[in-house]
Inverse folding.
């Protein structure tokens, strides 16, 4: 004969605050904490703010280290905390996107896996749906649709000019502009 009753209610699994699952809430947090300098988001400070609010076993550390050229970064759970590693040999604008991409994995996918290794973004055709989701999230965070569209409507037509407004790579801006439905030559 089995027993009936309640599960132990004292064990409570950490759930991501609703704030983090919604990109608009994350952008609002960045605004609230004054993390934008013009249109440029201080992504490292945002990660620190999010980490500060998380339980100890869900906090994030950032390490900028030399990696193989084909790697942009990784996110892994090591020794009771999340570690974001970023390829220090890549341009700072690419590093910024990598941080936003790894933050997206943390927010959206950390319950699915404990390790993400990301090859150079926007190169190659072997991205899975988690990678597309992380790219879209990072893109929305660093290059808000309304801001990009506003610059395009104001006559900014060169990808490198748009990219410099948000301190992202030209490849990241090309991805964003195409996602918005614009043709790029």
């Amino acid at each position: 004969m089995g027993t009936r009753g309640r599960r132990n209610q004292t064990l409570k699994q950490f759930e991501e605050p609703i704030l983090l699952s919604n990109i608009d809430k994350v952008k609002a947090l960045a605004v609230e904490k004054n993390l934008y300098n013009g249109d440029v988001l201080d992504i490292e400070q945002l990660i620190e703010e999010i980490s500060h609010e998380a339980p100890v076993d869900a906090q994030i550390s950032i390490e900028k280290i030399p990696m193989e050229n084909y790697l942009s970064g990784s996110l892994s759970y090591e020794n009771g905390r999340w570690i974001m590693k970023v390829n220090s040999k890549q341009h700072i604008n690419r590093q910024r996107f990598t941080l936003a991409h790894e933050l997206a994995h943390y927010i959206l996918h950390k319950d699915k896996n404990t390790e993400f290794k990301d090859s150079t973004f926007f190169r190659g055709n072997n991205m899975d749906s988690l990678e597309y989701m992380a790219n879209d999230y990072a893109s929305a965070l660093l290059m808000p649709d309304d801001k990009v569209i506003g610059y395009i409507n104001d006559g900014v037509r060169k990808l490198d000019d748009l990219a410099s407004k948000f301190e992202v790579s030209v490849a990241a801006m090309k991805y964003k502009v195409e996602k918005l439905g614009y043709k790029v030559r």
Remarks:
- The chain has eight helices and six strands.
